[in-house]
Amino acid sequence: MLLQSLIGGLIIGAGVSLLLLGRGQLAGISGIFGNTITGNFGEGRWRLAFLAGFLLSPVLAYLFTHQWIASNIQLSLPGIIIAGFLVGVGTQLGTGCTSGHGVCGLGNLSTRSLVATVTFMFVAGVTVYIARHVVGG
Amino acid sequence: MGALIAFAAGLIFGIGLLLSGMTDPQRILAFLDVAGDAWSPALMLVMGGAIAVALPVFAYARSRGNSLAGQALARIDRKTITPRLVIGSALFGVGWGLSGICPGPGLLIALSGQSEPLLFVASIAAGIYFYRAFLLPRTVAAVADPAGSSVSG
Question: Rounded to the nearest 10 degrees, how much is the dihedral formed by the CA atoms of A97, A102, A103, A109?
Fold first, then answer.
């Protein structure tokens, strides 16, 4: 299982590398998604093309596994709305998420992305601790 | 050609994400829950593996200054640390810690057609529109923040 996670990570690295070296762009999902839904598809509509490939990946996976992608969210409906909203606002204000700052930014030796990544990982860890061991404990 | 490369990059990224298991929010939470009984290092291996591949390629791209097809590299600010960077990342951290879902996995599990991930992605979109309508105009006006206009991630 852990080996599969590592292999998945290496493939993600190949994907972000292809976009930078082949197209000159960063594969940050929150930036690509945020720009696309507000009508900014980028030069040559590269964001739209990236998202199309990204969203087709479960179809490709289905051809091999014959299992359609499933969701395993264990959160109340108000919790889902609040968490999703914070992810939306936070990634735009902080100009990045796990892919943009965590993978591309750190891979690009960006101190700006290092600060962002340490911040969101630390805050996420504290949030989980409070939710599971203080409030829910 | 450029669109085809972006399409292939998105497809490869998605396959890696699916294979990594990180589309399951419970596995993300298992990593974030360092005080839990079932701590899992999986997310660290995923990010570490991706960064290990990206490091040399990104360094090569920086030294070239453009893509293999000759396009200029996207303007990327690697140094400016601002309050909005830290505050935004912290808000994202709260949402990520509550749900175990960041934008990439969120978009993929929404394809399950189940109502919870669809609601989550709709809420992300609502957060993005809220930011564009109410927060972005104020940050762009603040000249002191030169990174304000570029969303990179």
Answer: 130
pTM of this prediction?
0.94
- From A72's Cα to the closest Cα of chain B, the distance in A is 6
- Structure confidence by residue, pLDDT tens digits, B29-80: 999 999 999 999 999 999 999 999 999 999 999 999 999 988 899 989 999 9
Reference B40, options B58, B64, B22; nearest CA is B22
Q: What is the ipTM of this complex?
A: 0.97
- By the 8 A CB rule, do B152 and A110 touch? no
- Decide: B16 and A14 in contact? Cβ < 8 Å: yes
CB neighbourhood size of B6 (10 A): 29
Q: Cα–Cα distance between A80 and B100 in angstroms, integer?
A: 10
Instruction: Residue B117: list chain A partners with CB under 8 A.
Output: 71, 73
Q: Which of residues 27-66 of B touch A (CB under 8 A)?
A: 29, 32-36, 41-43, 45-55, 57-62, 66
* For chain B, percent of residues with pLDDT exceeding 70: 91
Q: Is B141 exposed, middle or buried (0-12, 13-18, 19+ CB in 10 A)?
A: exposed
Q: Touching check for A129 and chain B: CB below 8 Å?
A: yes
Q: How far apart (Å, rounded) are the C-alpha atoms in residues A104 and A90?
A: 18
Residue ranges in chain A modelled with pLDDT below 50:
none
B143-148 average pLDDT score: 46
Q: Is the Cα torsion angle B47, B53, B54, B59 positive or negative in sign?
A: positive
- Residue B145 sits at the chain A interface (C-beta within 8 Å): no
B residues 83-102 closer than 8 Å to A (CB): 84-102
- In angstroms, the CA B108 to CA A134 distance is 31
Q: How far is CA B72 from CA A21, B4, B75, in A?
A: 10, 18, 8
